[in-house]
Fold these 2 entries.
Entry 1:
Amino acid sequence: MAIGPSTRAANVDRERVIGLLQTQLAAGTLSAEEFSARAAVASRARTLGELDQLTQDLPVPVPSSVERTTSDPLRGMIVGALVAVAAFLLILVVVLVVLGVGATTG
């Protein structure tokens, strides 16, 4: 059985499109009125083709994990360096405390 525009839409298909519309509303691509109108049509859609028409003119959202990776490729290295510096400072404090305690008791 081939899936095409005339294939009956399931509730999960309608929910997926409404979720995409919500994402576009949050991004400012859709106005509140346009979102409401499209969401109403999506909730009544009978076919996948009807749902596709609601999102054809919208940009494809980029997952946040991809945005984060491409916008800040050195993030992992920076975090690693900060952890290393914090560990070094902790060891230094421990050594100074031990040396300080030894000097006062000895």
Entry 2:
Amino acid sequence: MNYALAQVFTDEVEKRLDDYDAAAHRGDPQSLAQLARGVPILTGAVRTILAQHQVDSHGSCTACPRPPWRRRTRCRLPRDLSVLLVDLDTVDDTTGKHALRTDR
């Protein structure tokens, strides 16, 4: 997949997430119904990502990227998702990336 196509997919996902956020903030019955229809989609997506990042007894994950000459690295996705699902304040908006802050 090239960069342009990946960006189109990323933009579409971000738009859907923005729509869900807006529906949650509006709170009217129609918006809440839209949000309720989206929750199974979001939970299914998270479950699929977790299934792709299953770790072995050493904590290595076959889905995480690595250079061919380097052994597998420890997968941090399950830990990062667990923290984010409890406390969204750990997302560092200043960098524009979804990185966990270490100062909290």
